[in-house]
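Model it.
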Amino acid sequence: MKKLRVVHYLNQFFAQIGAEEKGDVAPGIKYDPVGAGRALQQALGDKGEVAATVFCGDNYFAEHQQDAIDELLRMLAEREPDLLLAGPAFASGRYGVACGAICQAAQQILGIPVVTGMAEDNVGAALYRKSIYIVDSGSSVARMVQVLQCMGALGIKLATGESLGKPEQEGYLPRGIKRNEFAARPPAARAVDMLLAKLHGEEFKSEITPPKFASGKPAAPLRDLRSAVIALVTDGGLVLEGNPERLEPGRPTRFTSIRIGGIDALDPDNFDVFHSGYDTVFANQDPNRLVPLDAMRELERAGVIGKLYEVVHSTGGAHAAVESATRIGKEIAERLKDAGVDGVILTST
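Modeled.
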């Protein structure tokens, strides 16, 4: 078997360019293993060679994603790799998104196998786990060598066309893909086996993974509403007239931010309600029925609340995947927290 040509993607920190102060560095390339790439080369052994390391600053990638992807793909195409490995990003959200995005682009456009690694709760995993192979790295960088070994082994199998085992066998995050297999015993017998094991306190594993729903701790009540900054947020699909940002009416992957400074009420000539989960006729006739800006302005003028935050964050919540909804909620919460918002009125359908 010929030695595989491997390109490794890293962010500015792991490429040894610099820390946060170098987060805006543009895409670049080095023609040998760098940093963690040396451990990757050892993991590949004589089956693969890290022919180049491509890198990009996390901030640059986040702010210029398409430009970064285009430039990185150009560099990759010049090296003609058999395999792209990215990261691992562990718990770093921006790095995880970059790893997932460049891997997905390389897989779709260059047609090469790709593998990255990150923690299961990384936002990049929620975005890309169904389209690419992501090794579950956990959040501790101390596992770097083990994760690189797993990424390398998985990548070699993909590049050579070797069949893969189940996620728990190969170390990658489940992708929601199910394959038919012949079983030695029928379902009823296997179900009885699991029941007996459970009754006897023995270990057993369900053949169907139940969904995980996180529980949130209620926030403490506001001490003084009269001095509080209150924001309006909705999953009811409020958009600017014509939906210029093309917010999805259902199965959302993002949200939109609408500025309401200097506006006392939502005019139906300037705002639309775009949502596939309910009849939006009445909300489109008067968007204040969905997002009560008019009532909140009255409370603001009366001194009931200290101030209304001048941005409404909106998404369409119909048929939302749990992973996407969780990510969207976290991103909105981070923005509100950074803006000094004290409380939120979340309206729905």
